[in-house]
Amino acid sequence: MQSSIRRVRSELSDPHNAIKSKTIQLSNLHRTNQALQHTIRALRLSKKLRDLISASESEPEKLDLAKAAQLHYEILTMCNEYDLRGIDMVDEELNWVKEIGEKLRSQAMKVLERGMEGLNQAEVGTGLQVFYNLGELKVTVEQLVNKYKGMGVKSVGLALDMKAISASGGGYGPGGIRGSGTPQIGGGAKAREALWQRMGNCMDRLHSIVVAVWHLQRVLSKKRDPFTHVLLLDEVIKVKGIYDFGQNVSVCLLVLYECFYIGYGSWCLLPCELLSRVLIGL
Is 146:176 a contact under the CB 8 Å cutoff? Predict the structure, then answer.
């Protein structure tokens, strides 16, 4: 019985090993065929991108940034999805594609910021479309909103720089700066004038910042991807900064109105009360 089993096992082992070997070969051939297909596809996309870039070398402003960004995204996605890195030809193309990606981001950001500053919907839409095609719309919008937030904070800080305001009054004593560097605005007319001038410039700057961010939101709420028809605002809806920024500005303006306009009398009494307390203490 055991001898029969051994004989059957020996008769079946060779065909089984052959089938196993052929199956492995077939699997390897299938993977190789897929890798070749995806490699050819990636190289063709890279050639399209090269042709697109080359056609606009003499006139860079005519480069279709959105189309170039779409090709860039498809190439990188294919290489990542099918693990094409390590193939010499693909690696060479990837190095060039990454360089082009940096240039596309730089040009798109210039167009986007120029459109926000000039309130040009076409330029803002073009810039947003490029970053959408690159798959970086959420990150870009968040960075832009944070940038404008920082600009607003910096503007307020510069406007209320007491040393700079005091220095504009000239001399020492009221409206000047003592040897210790302590600001002394006092009753200096020049210092008061400088304060209100700086506040006026600050308000103008804050107005331009708020309008620029509002313009960005307006374009996002209108612009749709021409192929998928996805509303760009839906892609950044989770980026709450753009809404928080507007809400914070509204709340701050309301607070300032209540504090400085409605409560003007109270604000005027505060320095008087402080001065009285100091004189009593002396």
Answer: no
The single-letter code of the amino acid at 266 is S
Strand partners, 184: 176
Q: What is the 3-state secondary structure (H, E, C) of 197-220?
A: HHHHHHHHHHHHHHHHHHHHHHHH
Q: Which pLDDT does position 76 carry in this prediction? A: 94
pLDDT tens by residue, 189-219: 777 777 788 888 888 888 888 889 889 989 9
Residue 272 has pLDDT above 90, yes or no: no
Give the C-alpha separation, 12 to 244, whole Å: 72
Q: Parse the chain into domains and list their residue ranges.
A: 1-135, 137-282
Q: Partners of 231 in the beta sheet?
A: 224
Determine contact, residues 186/174, Cβ cutoff 8 Å.
yes
Q: What integer best gives the mean pLDDT of the chain?
A: 81
Closest alpha carbon to 31 in 95, 83, 69? 83
- Residues with Cβ within 8 Å of 137's Cβ and at least 6 positions away in sequence, in order, are 128, 131, 232, 235, 236
Per the structure block, which two tokens stand in for 211?
A: 């309008």
* Contact indicator for 259, 267 with CB cutoff of 8 Å: yes
